[in-house]
Amino acid sequence: MKDKVQTAIVGVTGYAGAELARLLLHHPRLKGLPPVFAGRLDDKDMARGGVPLAEIHPQLADSHGNGLLRLEPFSWELLAERGVDVLFLATPHEQSRQWVPEALLRGMRIIDLSGAWRLNEAANRAVYAFDDHDSEQAAATQAQAVYGMPELHRAEIAKARLVANPGCYATSVILAVKPLVAAGLVNLNHGIVADAKSGVSGAGKAPTARTHFMYAADNLSAYSVFSHRHTGELLEQIGLSAEEIVFTPHLLPIPRGILSTVYVQFREPQTRASIAHAYREFFAASPMVRLYEKALPQIQHSVRTNYADIGFQLDAAGSRAVVVSCLDNLLKGASGQAVQNLNVMLGWPESEGLE
Amino acid sequence: MKDKVQTAIVGVTGYAGAELARLLLHHPRLKGLPPVFAGRLDDKDMARGGVPLAEIHPQLADSHGNGLLRLEPFSWELLAERGVDVLFLATPHEQSRQWVPEALLRGMRIIDLSGAWRLNEAANRAVYAFDDHDSEQAAATQAQAVYGMPELHRAEIAKARLVANPGCYATSVILAVKPLVAAGLVNLNHGIVADAKSGVSGAGKAPTARTHFMYAADNLSAYSVFSHRHTGELLEQIGLSAEEIVFTPHLLPIPRGILSTVYVQFREPQTRASIAHAYREFFAASPMVRLYEKALPQIQHSVRTNYADIGFQLDAAGSRAVVVSCLDNLLKGASGQAVQNLNVMLGWPESEGLE
Amino acid sequence: MKDKVQTAIVGVTGYAGAELARLLLHHPRLKGLPPVFAGRLDDKDMARGGVPLAEIHPQLADSHGNGLLRLEPFSWELLAERGVDVLFLATPHEQSRQWVPEALLRGMRIIDLSGAWRLNEAANRAVYAFDDHDSEQAAATQAQAVYGMPELHRAEIAKARLVANPGCYATSVILAVKPLVAAGLVNLNHGIVADAKSGVSGAGKAPTARTHFMYAADNLSAYSVFSHRHTGELLEQIGLSAEEIVFTPHLLPIPRGILSTVYVQFREPQTRASIAHAYREFFAASPMVRLYEKALPQIQHSVRTNYADIGFQLDAAGSRAVVVSCLDNLLKGASGQAVQNLNVMLGWPESEGLE
Amino acid sequence: MKDKVQTAIVGVTGYAGAELARLLLHHPRLKGLPPVFAGRLDDKDMARGGVPLAEIHPQLADSHGNGLLRLEPFSWELLAERGVDVLFLATPHEQSRQWVPEALLRGMRIIDLSGAWRLNEAANRAVYAFDDHDSEQAAATQAQAVYGMPELHRAEIAKARLVANPGCYATSVILAVKPLVAAGLVNLNHGIVADAKSGVSGAGKAPTARTHFMYAADNLSAYSVFSHRHTGELLEQIGLSAEEIVFTPHLLPIPRGILSTVYVQFREPQTRASIAHAYREFFAASPMVRLYEKALPQIQHSVRTNYADIGFQLDAAGSRAVVVSCLDNLLKGASGQAVQNLNVMLGWPESEGLE
């Protein structure tokens, strides 16, 4: 590894991209500015050699209102010229599907924030309808991909050339459930219920009927019932069959944050201490998970942090638990976790630049 | 029954009380103004003979900003003087517990919006810690109480002298689950999960740390896990043991509305048609329930109406359903349902004054 | 006038159109259903003979979720067939500009909710860039138009064939300022400031960057400074030159409601009583204006009513006032005022169907 | 000055105190933890030697959920023991009024966030009703106080022993108006209008009727018209008589942020360039003010930053301007500005720890 690591971002116009640019800009081990690339620029913006990023995300402006970062048209040549070591893709999944094989060939390490490479099972990938499903290159690339959740795959991420950064909902549910399933405590015959609620930034920056203020404000709605794309991540990472979990996302009238309420039944009666122990063991080396001892976490406490907050309540008999898991969908649910993966890949402290 | 029915409200300073006053004021079969009484008034307000209700609830003011209703100090004599036939109590449950026996003795019919008389089982009532638990009068009164959900107990409500108006969460969950359980479809061994989310008006008008804008806004939090007072209503009305359901309430950052997401497993595979049939049968005579054929209901659609909106999705195998139930916690969840009960008690069309 | 008045609406897919449909549906003097027409329908909807309005506005659904109103393709023949007496246009201003002359020829009375016919002065109309500015027919139509604010033009509205329903901001500011200017109290040399704030429904139903939840929520922004289209209405109706008032609209993070804070300087010192007197005199016959005696109005109190609420504070010297004016932008600011105009045109009580 | 500066905070339970603790904890030139003191602790908390700050402000918790800071009972002895150089008071103004003279005697430098020492004129101080108005000690202390707005008083702050940190509204309005008045451009005969809107955190952490979610949400209200406590700061710092400005605060339904819309008339016609020049000159050495060249600032862009954002629009004649000023009421409007003052007092870069 060189003295100084050079990162770059492609696809920085969305909410996650903006957060990523901000995090990389202030990361104490990344001295220079990260170049930021647009997948596509219109003619007018091409003519002026790109777009100041502060025009798109005013909160990235500096004290003179100008901003330091400039959105440039993407090209492989430019990436090579800048000596990019680690490439972040915050692009649509179809685009990531195309570009990752090329980037690997060119020797870069990649952290892909899309859903393109998260799923190992063809059946689970079906929801994305990738058009390269029978490509050998795609299969070879998929084989290299590591699911980018350090709490589960720290050692593999450290060596990975391609990290598939998890979905926001998936992160929220997996961190709540995996420690209990891994410890063999859960009665899977009864089925796990994951009732998840997300702020509107999770629905993307494009103005649609669903992201209209009049639709989202003073409202709550369930969507993608039995059909959300993140379901496959739950099955593969927790190790469940489709019958063993129901996952329902809801659109909350708030800008950021996810709260998942997860319902599990135990094989044998548990105590508060035995459950707390299972979580503490599982997350012993994980600085970005906060376990709540008494109270339950709330969305407000984890928003604008990279923490996943986890707490639980047992019923009187110790046979059932309600687990509450909170995180910021743009940080631990996207760009913060991407930077956490960067830290793991480079052998830096896992929470560097994230506190 | 007299030509003209005289109603009265005690306890009108909260959100449900204000909605009730508004509904009774505009009810087409109630010509005169309903007298409204405060359980307690301070000396200053006593000295001026009560308080114009528009001072407390400006939205009840008329075109001259004055308001027609006046909050008077409560007395049994005044109730008798006004010839009150039906008494609405929107008082704390301790107060309802004290006053209802007296009101029955005085020949009034009562619709009590508190939790005082909703629960038949002593075990379920324990959460309220009533101090009259071994009183014969209390037992006799309880024996007369009818649970005021017309969709379940229409015939009994018509004859009842004491109607115990249901809890807001309980209404939301019971209407979603009861038709499926009553039709014998649900596998209760697997446990029902009711994940409910309510707007802040459900938390009452008193300023507290939890109702502070800075706590509730941009937030979501679970509370009273495994211990909410409405749980007993679910058990008794649906006919479940405590192990057969988990109910978790959450505080939503919106003023009004409840959405409950309910998870059930079936004994045998079902079709969309078979489930829709079960709901249609159960609610055939119920004008205040709207069944959604395709889309799922959202909080926005039921808020400021007295409708309970119910929709569902089945999984591919037909073995599990996610049922979504929405209502306005102050209307179908409280005062609207109280007026619906009034209509049933008096033999009027059930939705009179509610559309 | 026939026994039964037949109304119709064209353009009912927006927020104001939905409110108008709701109001007409429940108006006690309009027995039948109002036909509702779309300016344009796509082929699929044409093929099925229109669209159930409840598909577009679920809150207009009845207890069976179906809705009573059906959006039909517009045609003059259909209007004639239904015997429409009063036509409401909730169409874009270009469309109202085209259709109104034809509707007048066909003998209908018209209430136009757009900005098409509100402005008498060509200079003020320039902001709309109408393409018929030198048309004789347009001039003749404009000459018939009456500005539809009953508090200012009640007698003319009663006789009008074409009522130009005012802008929401304009209603809010004119009602606050006109009584003081009309009474000769205001020192116009000092300039009036009208700082107005509106909920997001005022920005329309089309999803745009500005109506995205992430833009509007937790935010406040000023826009159209010195250039908002409603400014001409202020000048013409209050009787001011452009130098005598500054009007600044802001986008509030709430669904509905406008609050305008208006600053005036008086020619001579005033008392609370003298100002209150001026308002009371001006609004003596106006049932839809509520004057606040002590407190200032708030958006919450007027939302979901057709009232304009007005209150004020004087400085110690009595030389300046801050006037606060609140209304619901979709009711008194649009559809409620349109129904108020209907009532005036037909000689019905002005607040019929609006309380 | 010692190698290492020791700060302390008294009064850290409110929103501004929590932000201040967070800023000092992460300030790159303040290595140790700042001790934090409560003015008063109840017996139970005294018995356990104070309160972990994370219990009160969960967002200050570290990765183990414990938090590093502990709220201790205040005593002068403890302050001395810790060798405190700079004392921040985030206490009620009565308490600051009592403690500051003592702290000065004990040789500490003080940054007081309350309104206790901001006002030089007795007439302006009257709104606070201090009970020491004829005390010589109070007068002597007041004489030492410097108004803590670096953009106006940088040199004096550098030498000050007592810095009176400005009010949030005052900061917002002064920064918008002062440069234009200082340049002699404003026609004060016409009166300046400052229409300001603040998020709910400005109303304090105590649960009250006004901070209840049901009051603040979906609402907007004006308050303290012609009587807000920050008015005196505007008069003294801009140099105006009471007749030359009207200031109206409003309560916005958002957690944080202030937007002030300010209306000025010029003595002579101005151009966009001449006004921009006046601002640029005035703020040439001020890193925490961002001047907007084209667009107007919005609350969202300055929230969670220490920037004051300023933009403006001129009318066609160049005779009037609407100036829009945005800031975060807890940062540039309180604790961020306090840290900015600390930086100036210690000769550190002004934006240290604030970007």
What oligomeric state do these chains adopt?
Answer: homotetramer
Question: What's the mean pLDDT score of chain A?
Answer: 93
Provide the structure class of chain A.
alpha/beta
Main sheet of chain A, how many strands, which sense, barrel?
8 strands, mixed
**Main sheet: strand order of chain A:** 3-4-2-1-5-6-8-7
Q: Which regions of chain A are unreliable across 5 or more consecutive residues at pLDDT < 50?
A: none
Biggest interface pair, residues each? A-B, 43 and 43 residues
The share of residues in extended strands of chain A comes to 15-25%
- How far is the first residue's CA from the last residue's CA of chain A? 25 Å
Q: Give the strand tally of chain A.
A: 15
Summarize the amount of helix of chain A as a percent range.
25-40%
Tell me the series of helices and strands of chain A, N- to C-terminal.
Answer: EHEHEHEHEHEHHEHEHEHEHEEHEHEEH
Count of helix runs of chain A: 14
* CATH C-level of the largest domain in chain A: Alpha Beta
Radius of gyration of chain A: 20 Å
CATH fold-level label of the largest domain in chain A:
Rossmann fold
Assign the CATH superfamily of the largest domain in chain A: NAD(P)-binding Rossmann-like Domain
Q: Architecture of the largest domain in chain A, according to CATH? A: 3-Layer(aba) Sandwich
Dominant shape of chain A:
globular
Can you describe this structure in just a few lines?
With 355 residues, the first copy, chain A, is of the alpha/beta class. Chain A has helices at 15-26, 43-47, 53-56, 76-81, 93-105, 122-125, 136-144, 150-159, 168-182, 213-216, 231-239, 272-282, 299-302, 331-345, and strands at 7-10, 36-38, 51-52, 70-73, 86-89, 109-112, 145-147, 162-164, 192-198, 221-222, 245-251, 258-265, 289-291, 308-314, 320-327.
